[in-house]
Amino acid sequence: MAVVVAVKYRLKPGKRDELLSFVMDNVVNTRNEPGNLAYSHYPSIEDEQEMFVYELWEEQKNLDDHIRMPHYVEFAHKRKPLLEWWEAQIYEARFIQEVKKAPVVG
């Protein structure tokens, strides 16, 4: 079963540019990992200290392998001193119903 990961983290004041200077290496490498279907870091438009991460994996094993990959370990090590806090939620991604088009409202 596919797995969705939603991560939100808050950077220390003034650390956004430093994070953005190295985050894309992790994004590119992660997108090339086996089982990765989507992976992106999104800087908040409203708050320069906030970031959102969206991940989609074919199965839990792929996510488990990801956190041990050398590029991710290096990224996490570089990011850690820049963080105030972070939180993550993991969801099962299950096909519920096919919708051909969006429902009409009103």
Automatic annotation (TrEMBL):
InterPro entries: ABM_dom, AI-2_Isomerase_LsrG, Dimeric_a/b-barrel
Keyword entries, A-Z: Monooxygenase, Oxidoreductase
Claim: Oxidoreductase is one of the keywords in the record: yes
Domain of life: Bacteria
Gene3D superfamilies the UniProt entry points to: 3.30.70.100
PROSITE patterns: ABM
Key word Cell membrane present: no
Domain ABM: 3-91
A single GO molecular function term of this UniProt record: monooxygenase activity
Membrane-spanning intervals of the chain: none
Matches recorded under PANTHER family: ABM DOMAIN-CONTAINING PROTEIN (PTHR33336:SF3), QUINOL MONOOXYGENASE YGIN-RELATED (PTHR33336)
Protein name: Antibiotic biosynthesis monooxygenase
Lineage: Bacteria, Pseudomonadati, Pseudomonadota, Betaproteobacteria, Burkholderiales
